[in-house]
Amino acid sequence: MLCRAACGAGGRLAPAVGVLGSRQKHSLPDLPYDYGALEPHINGQIMQLHHSKHHATYVNNLNATEEKYREALAKGDVTAQVALQPALKFNGGGHLNHAIFWTNLSPNGGGEPKGELLEAIKRDFGSFEKFKEKLTAVSVGVQGSGWGWLGFNKEQGRLQVAACSNQDPLQGTTGLIPLLGIDVWEHAYYLQYKNVRPDYLKAIWNVINWENVAERYSACKK
């Protein structure tokens, strides 16, 4: 319930607390490419561990936490409901963020976006290169673990970059609709790039799926 509702809303975390009946559990989404398809920019071992271990753990913990939340809700145990909120946010955000991240990447990615998205980037950042520099700088600057994001400010009708700590979801944290997320947790790059996050960020631009980002941009404007 948590992430399924959130995905439809572009990333807003809002558990369906009014539903006590049976529900379908969250599941780990398949990658749209093989684990080794993003090499040499992101190696296959990283992708396998990242997807099958880290993302899977968020999914499993989210399902377990939601079950506990439903039990607390049925009992009217408000204290337990409040205590479970951090786990819902962390694991729900982890599931949601990674579900976006996998589709933001492609072995046929890289280069520049086209059409409406490119024009919006030029309008809001001055040029595509300035946008890359800004999102890279924001992502490098994340202290500890977190994400760098390109998001859409629906109220202002413009693109913005932002950083989120840990697995905090972009829309639930900033109100921006997520278009492109860059995972800067060490598990996303350490096996290949060690502690040199800037090298990972330089490489990841070669596999950005601009078609997916453009589709998200078009959808959030409707």
Automatic annotation (TrEMBL):
Catalytic activity entry: 2 superoxide + 2 H(+) = H2O2 + O2
GO CC terms of this entry: mitochondrial matrix
GO MF, any single term: superoxide dismutase activity
Family: Belongs to the iron/manganese superoxide dismutase family.
Keyword Transcription attached: no
Domain Manganese/iron superoxide dismutase C-terminal: 113-216
Residue span, Manganese/iron superoxide dismutase N-terminal domain: 25-106
Main location: mitochondrion
EC number: 1.15.1.1
Cofactor: Mn(2+)
UniProt-listed GO biological process terms: acetylcholine-mediated vasodilation involved in regulation of systemic arterial blood pressure; detection of oxygen; erythrophore differentiation; glutathione metabolic process; heart development; hemopoiesis; intracellular oxygen homeostasis; intrinsic apoptotic signaling pathway in response to DNA damage
Species, as recorded: Nannospalax galili
Catalytic class of the enzyme: oxidoreductase
Known role: Destroys superoxide anion radicals which are normally produced within the cells and which are toxic to biological systems.
Gene this chain is encoded by: Sod2
Keyword entries, A-Z: Manganese, Metal-binding, Mitochondrion, Nitration, Oxidoreductase
Positions contributing to Mn(2+) binding: H50, H98, D183, H187
Record's keyword annotation contains Cell membrane: no
Record protein name field: Superoxide dismutase
Description of how the protein assembles with itself and partners: Homotetramer.
Location of the protein in the cell: Mitochondrion matrix
